[in-house]
Amino acid sequence: MTTISLRIPESLHKTAKEIVKQEGISLNQFITLALAEKVSALATAEYLEQRAARGDREKFLAAMAKVADVEPQREEDRL
Fold first, then answer.
1. How far apart are CA 49 and CA 75, in angstroms?
2. Model's pTM, two decimal places?
3. Considering its fold, how many domains does the chain have in total?
4. Are 19 and 30 in contact (CB under 8 A)?
5. pLDDT value at position 24?
6. Is residue 28 included in any domain, yes or no?
7. Which residues contact 14 (CB under 8 A, 6 or more apart)?
8. Do the domain assignments include residue 62?
């Protein structure tokens, strides 16, 4: 584990303390979870950008051409 010193606005600290009290967790755990969520969101965005860059429009159109042009049979399948 690594220890860091963090400076945050007093208003944010106050709000975070209220939330952790309601949630029954420590401020350390709350900040760790918030950081993990942000890191995960950024990593996911980067992954999706990389996947999109590998996309091939011609392959997409070829796959879509194989889809039957029929009306949905079930109401919940309609747009």
1. 34
2. 0.65
3. 1
4. yes
5. 97
6. yes
7. none
8. no
Specify if 20 maps to a domain.
Answer: yes
**CB of 30 within 8 A of CB of 20?**
yes
Q: Whose CA is closest to 16, among 36, 39, 32?
A: 32
Using an 8 Å Cβ cutoff, are 37 and 29 in contact? no
Residue-level pLDDT at 79: 84
How far is the CA of 20 from the CAs of 16, 26, 30, 46, in angstroms? 6, 6, 7, 30
Q: What is the pLDDT of residues 8-58, one digit of tens each?
A: 999 999 999 999 999 999 999 999 999 999 999 999 999 999 999 999 999
Could you report how far apart the first and last alpha carbons of the chain are, in Å?
A: 50
Residue pointed to by tokens 């350390």: 28
Which residue segment(s) compose the domain that 28 sits in? 11-39
63's tokens:
């796959």
